[in-house]
């Protein structure tokens, strides 16, 4: 079989090398997945650039966490899966239910866990969930990181309710999933975006209004003035945006922090405390949350937005596309035919 390896000590796409190896065999408690598609996330570039750090401490690595395919072999003792089952990968290990724990790792395709950018992978039987029946495997491959993160941000701790207002920061994969999920919940959706072309596309998706965070440094106040305060912010930018998020919130609102893009701001305690807001970190989500999301996607016929697809031999081009400023939706690598 063929697979891609991210070579030790290399922090550019030149470190991605394709190699041919024997097809792996599942052991007890494991399943083998014939991978049909793998989807990229921003974290895959963090891993690429972290040649000697926490993301990649153990040498060569099969990259990418998000994949979908068909189980074609099961190991001894596996009873919940059969050959032919359509499944998606689960991002984090040993995380069956909320809350998070110290043993869940950094996700497939990082640290001590190989990923799914290969024709076949072997995983613990608990490391896959059923793929949504309404989606192709190319679209199902986008679920494990971005979609589960969006679902956890919207439904965990302070679940978004019908008729509430929610603000997404930017137009990355998590934000676009959050738009679709929030619309299906029945919320009114707002998004920050600095590009007119993307703002038009967001409005076509049913977004009530967009706010240009580059043209308006006080965009949080603008959101509050226009909406009366949103009930939740899905913050995919990072801690550098928290004070503006607080400005945008209604009293008693919630900020779900996901992003690793901006750092450095000290939280202004006066408004934070006065508004009684909550601030939560979102480490993707549990296996149970992924299973709940799959059922929700099917019930509401949600279809992920795919920006570009690439062939298996075009993995380097896919990596480069993932950081394009024009990206709007997911980048997916087709590995085998469905």
Summary keywords:
338 residues, Rossmann fold, six-stranded parallel β-sheet, 2 domains, seven-stranded mixed β-sheet, alpha/beta, Quinone Oxidoreductase, Chain A, domain 1, ADH-like_C, 27% helix, oxidoreductase activity, 10 helices, 15 strands, GroES-like_sf
Can you put this structure into words, describing what you see?
The chain is α/β, with parallel strands linked by helices and 338 residues long. The chain has 2 domains: 2-142 and 304-334, Alpha-Beta Complex (Quinone Oxidoreductase, Chain A, domain 1); 148-281, Rossmann fold, CATH 3.40.50. The protein is built from 10 helices and 15 strands. The chain has helices at residues 42-48, 137-140, 143-155, 173-185, 196-204, 219-227, 242-248, 269-275, 287-300, 315-322, and strands spanning 2-6, 16-20, 30-39, 66-74, 86-89, 120-124, 128-130, 165-169, 188-192, 209-211, 230-235, 249-257, 278-281, 306-311, 330-334. The strands form 3 sheets. Strands 3, 4, 5, 6, 7, 14 and 15 form a 7-stranded mixed sheet that branches. Strands 10-9-8-11-12-13 form a 6-stranded parallel sheet, sandwiched between helices. The protein has a two-stranded antiparallel ribbon with strand order 1-2. α3 crosses α4 and α6 runs parallel beside α7 (242-248). It is globular, with a radius of gyration of 20 Å. The mean pLDDT is 95.
